[in-house]
Design a protein that fits this description.
With 365 residues, this protein is α+β, with helices and mostly antiparallel strands. Helices cover 25% and strands 35% of the residues. It folds into 2 domains: 232 residues, 3-Layer(aba) Sandwich (Rossmann fold), CATH 3.40.50; 122 residues, Nucleic acid-binding proteins (OB fold (Dihydrolipoamide Acetyltransferase, E2P), Beta Barrel). The strands form 4 sheets. A 6-stranded mixed β-sheet has the order 6-7-8-3-9-10, with helices on both faces. Helix 2 crosses helix 3, helix 2 packs parallel to helix 4 and helix 3 packs across helix 4. It binds adenosine-5'-diphosphate and magnesium ion.
Length: 365
Amino acid sequence: MAAIIELENISKHYSPTIIGVDNVSLTVEDGEFVTLLGPSGCGKSTLLRMIGGFETPTAGSIRLADKDVTWDPPYKREVNMVFQDYALFPHMTVGENVGYGLKVKGLGRLEIETKVHDALKLVGLFDKVKLRPQQLSGGQRQRIALARAIVREPKVLLLDEPLSALDAKLREQMQIEMKHLHEKVGITFVMVTHDQTEALVMSDRVVVMEKGRIAQQGRPQELYDHPASPYVANFIGTTNFLPGRVIRCAGERAEIEIGGGRLSAIVDAPLVAGSTVTAGCRPEKVRLLAEGETAENVLEGRVAEVIYYGLGLRLAVELADGSRVYTDSLLPDRLALSAVPPLGQSLRLAVEPHNVFVFEGEVTP
Ligand code: ADP
Ligand code: MG
């Protein structure tokens, strides 16, 4: 695959103290669906707007389809942007809204009609061509905004929190629809969101941002299974963090002493014996042991809280030193629900060594 977007050491300093984006280098492949993910204020929109030409960088360069566009205005770039509020013209019909950009470009009426028809068909709204935006639902307006953006056949579509105005149910549905749309049109999508589930569901690759920088990037599963830092482990999914100390480390295996016991972990890089670390594990990777069952990493504690969330149960288990470990289990049947341990009951937990993350230093989540 060829690179379509190449960002080299891009920075945006709004003022000496307000740093929007801090020295980011990123390559996006042609046809990819890349998502910029991070909490509010981490620089996602600033980075997206610089790709679109709505903001100029204070340092670095931007290449689009092998052409340096760092100083080009938006209309000279083969990109199109979908804004959060859709920005549809209320006095125009759906068809006129979608065709507007083509009309400005000077295309003929027949050609515009054909392209508008195709774009509306792609988003499943051809029968709404004569309606006005206010006659449509939020989800339909969102699709019209998408149709209007793809009708001009940009090389890259930039989407800033495109689903944030929709309610939860509709948002889930649109996540899948947009993913399918991306597959159909073959245009490169770069999306911004602060919603980790949305990023995991929709993207080929997720770029996690932290204070204007890239914290980690990778395929959704890579990020989830191998977070490079506590920040990423905490932002994507839920993680139990347990302060600890390295007892020994041989090859890829490390023994960690934590307040409530000991853990073996599989690590990528050697750790220094005696050093301070933080062990992490996902609640769904922590399992309740049956009586008499043995396992490699056993933690003993008492049930401190039971949280029922429909699909399953989350137990907060307090270890001997007072730290808490969450364990998630799905509830396959009623029997399982009746077997929920009561508050205060002692129990044993286990987590496989390859499911234990080890981060150097202390973590203050
Ligand atoms: P995000 O989209 O991740 O929420 P933004 O890119 O909007 O983050 O903002 C990154 C940082 O830059 C924030 O500290 C924000 O306050 C600041 N910022 C964004 N836009 C401007 C602007 N036009 N002028 C000054 N500061 C800005
Ligand atoms: Mg933003």
